[in-house]
């Protein structure tokens, strides 16, 4: 018995010594790591998922881009060079960006991606910069988790509208349509349905800032299931800046049954013309010719809203009310008011020599020159100066969205990773050239959606990659 007691005491002392050693080791590791700095090794030629785009109307060389998991980037050179301006914030997932066109130094950013994949990251509210993106202040709505749209009053910089989606995996009440009348110092929820329904879009009549159209979307995700749509979804119109709302229904021309995600676009050249892309039992593009009072279905093609939870965007040409763009897997355009669409031949998954990615989420049209387009998709940013006939892919934004990474046993070692919708890649941790690591040093080793990439520990030229389907 005495021996047993001594054994227990010795065991306790051993555990104490081990814990002290582990603590000391942890402190030692922390001290060692404190002097290390992150070093970018690429790849920059591979873009990542883009969530939002805006540009300064009076100076379209100034472009602001919100990245699904890569913060906010600004170009002041028409897309030739880019600067990350949001890295000091505690959130990297972006859902919306909006520039005050009267004072472009004022930029709003809504965090939390609104394209509700199971791998999307959450946000931390809405942010504001008053110095062109150099510094930021969080202005509230921290529990909204995902902000999908921001609309700014053109004549009063203090009036801001936000479409807050809310949480993806559980109910919450900080969702719906919000308005600030004091530049973001305080917020009023002006449209709310229930704790499972969020605001997916809000658009302002370009000729009357008191006229608003908003979409409400009921959705929920579980580990192996996603439900988009329900009785909470709907289209709402306000004529008094959001104080009062009227729901549009099947009697006004909307599809019957349960609705889902929606997006809207006013024609700047004829604000009575409004387009609405509506997820429904049979999804449809709707058109109103009386400012949203009544609607008609103009297109129900399968591709018009093929994956509405992931991309639902429709954009009217600012100069031609009959010309409208649809954002989906492929970019398409109609020149007859939405009745017929043609795919852009350059942005096509099956086109020989195609260099522009599919799966489109964000679009900007220069209001002064409708030939000038910027598109954002799963592959990054592309810019056109001829209404989409040709595109220039931006190859210097390191936005690749890695799911998992691994290293091999080479000297210097190589880094492997699977990217969201951009394959699996291998690149060096170091190269023996003065210029350092370049895009040409990276190699694609797998296709599709990359996940785990495992190199053979004895042969770096062999290994395993994963993609969707296996």
Q: How would you describe this protein?
A:
With 470 residues, the protein is mostly beta strands. The protein has 2 domains: 50-393, YVTN repeat-like/Quinoprotein amine dehydrogenase (Methylamine Dehydrogenase, Chain H, 7 Propeller); 401-470, no CATH class. Helix content is 7%, strand content 39%. It is built from 1 helix and 35 strands. The chain has one helix spanning 2-33; strands at residues 50-56, 59-67, 71-75, 83-84, 94-99, 107-111, 126-129, 137-138, 147-152, 160-164, 176-180, 188-191, 197-205, 208-222, 225-228, 234-238, 246-248, 262-266, 274-278, 284-288, 296-299, 313-316, 324-327, 332-334, 342-343, 360-366, 369-377, 380-384, 392-393, 402-407, 414-419, 424-428, 443-446, 453-456, 459-465. The strands form 9 sheets. Strands 13, 14, 15, 16 and 17 form a 5-stranded antiparallel sheet that branches. A 4-stranded antiparallel sheet has the order 1-2-3-4, with no helix packed on it. A 4-stranded antiparallel sheet has the order 5-6-7-8, with no helix packed on it. A hairpin with a 2-residue loop joins strand 27 (369-377) and strand 28. The relative contact order is 0.10.
């Amino acid at each position: 018995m005495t021996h047993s007691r001594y054994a227990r005491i010795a065991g306790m002392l051993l555990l104490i010594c081990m814990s002290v050693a582990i603590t000391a080791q942890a402190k030692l590791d922390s001290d060692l790591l404190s002097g290390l700095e992150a070093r970018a090794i690429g790849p920059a030629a591979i873009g990542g998922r883009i969530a939002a785009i805006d540009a300064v109307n009076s100076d379209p060389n100034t472009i602001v881009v919100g990245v699904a998991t890569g913060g906010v980037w600004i170009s002041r050179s028409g897309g030739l060079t880019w600067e990350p301006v949001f890295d000091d914030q505690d959130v990297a997932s972006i859902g919306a960006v909006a520039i005050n066109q009267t004072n472009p130094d004022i930029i709003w950013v809504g965090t939390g991606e609104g394209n509700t994949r199971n791998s999307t990251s959450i946000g931390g509210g809405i942010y504001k910069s008053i110095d062109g993106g150099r510094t930021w202040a969080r202005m509230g709505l921290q529990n909204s988790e995902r902000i999908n749209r921001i609309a700014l009053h053109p004549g009063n910089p203090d009036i801001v509208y936000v479409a807050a989606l809310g949480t993806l995996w559980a109910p919450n009440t900080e969702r719906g349509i919000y308005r600030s009348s004091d530049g973001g110092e305080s917020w009023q929820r002006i449209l709310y349905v229930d704790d499972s329904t969020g605001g997916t879009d809000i658009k302002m009549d370009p000729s009357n800032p008191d006229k608003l159209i908003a979409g409400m979307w009921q959705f929920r995700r579980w580990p192996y299931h996603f439900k988009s749509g329900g009785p909470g979804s709907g289209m709402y119109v306000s004529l008094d800046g959001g104080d009062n709302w009227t729901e549009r229904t099947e009697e006004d021309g909307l599809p019957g049954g349960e609705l889902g995600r929606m997006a809207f676009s006013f024609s700047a050249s004829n604000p009575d013309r409004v387009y609405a892309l509506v997820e429904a039992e049979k999804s449809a593009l709707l058109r109103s010719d009386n400012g949203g009072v009544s609607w008609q279905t103009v297109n129900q093609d399968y591709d018009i809203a093929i994956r509405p939870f992931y991309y639902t965007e429709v954009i009217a040409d600012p100069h031609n009310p009959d010309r409208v763009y649809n954002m989906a897997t492929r970019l398409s355009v109609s020149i007859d008011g939405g009745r017929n669409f043609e795919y852009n031949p350059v942005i096509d998954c099956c086109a020989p020599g195609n260099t522009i990615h599919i799966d489109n989420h964000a679009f900007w049209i220069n209001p002064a020159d409708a030939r000038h387009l910027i598109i954002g998709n799963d592959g990054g940013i592309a810019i056109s100066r001829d209404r989409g006939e040709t595109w220039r892919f931006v190859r210097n934004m390191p936005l690749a969205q890695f799911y998992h990474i691994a290293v091999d046993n080479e000297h210097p070692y190589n880094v492997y990773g699977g990217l969201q919708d951009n394959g699996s890649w291998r690149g060096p941790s170091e190269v023996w050239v003065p210029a350092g690591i370049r895009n040409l040093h990276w190699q694609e080793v797998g296709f599709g959606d990359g996940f785990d990439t495992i190199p053979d520990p004895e042969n770096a030229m062999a290994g395993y990659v994963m993609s969707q389907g296996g």
